[in-house]
Amino acid sequence: MDISIAEFKPVEADLGPACDIWNAAVAPQSELYLPMSPALMAERLAGRTGIPADICLLAEEAGRPVGLAIATTTSLTDRPAADLACMAVMPGARQQGIGETLLREVEQRCRAAGRETLKVDYSTTTRLAHGVDPTTPGHRWLLHRGFTVFRDQLFMRLEMQDWRLPESIVSLVDGLEASGVTLRPAGPEETPSLLQCAAEFGPWIENSLQSNAESATPAPVLVAIEDGTVRGFVGPLTISGCGVPDFDLIAVTASERGRGVGKALFYLCLEDFRQRGATLFELMTAPTNPAQKLYLDAGMRLICVLVCHEKRL
User: Fold this and answer.
1) What domains appear along the chain, each with residue ranges and CATH number?
2) What angle do CA 7, 120, 311 make, to 5 degrees?
């Protein structure tokens, strides 16, 4: 067996072989793993915060791509960590040590970059998938190579083509408006109050909303306003070039909980995505989060309980 490792760039023009491997080796294993086009893979590897994948490797046998590894050595949330976005081998080329060869190369490069841990996690800029489906062979493969599970999440998906805002939510919004709670997109004048509200939930969301407000083309943020003060929000509501919707956080201050504000914000968020052309919305939540009932009632479908892995380097 003559296996060589070649680098490629995470740009659409160079991603045909990588997509072929992903679609043959990964996507068929679980609904968690969406099929990839070069455009969608390029979008995800470019990084949600401008941090692209910097380890992009193909394993080739006699010039034929048979294995794929993608990682990022700059983590969003854990500076000593690197993030593994993909490790895959074509079905007809397995049991030859190709995956081990790729993993060793990734680990060596991560150590050279000063990283202490390699993670498969949803908190990454280059998210081909949000984690690992534990019913798949890939999960067991990682466990046998020194990875351990460090958290899990419920993964849900909503097909939005036929989704419509329920009349019950229209009535809920009308009732909140009558009680003095206004729900609408935030304007520039709401930024100070929005940031003050966000500070209750952590500096990361405060920073995200600040950066969004300073952007030349800020994404919408839906807010609940009472007595001139932001009491809750959902956003920023982004839709990628490939039509993938996302938001950073939905949150309601303690004083407003129990009135249906969060429920109204979530449904209005989905309606915003639908009106802007989104067709598929994905969401993760902790298994203990009571909001999962809200998401399921809105029509979201539970795909799996995904797991996240890590390995000390």
Assistant:
1) 3-153+306-312 (3.40.630.30), 162-278 (3.40.630.30)
2) 95
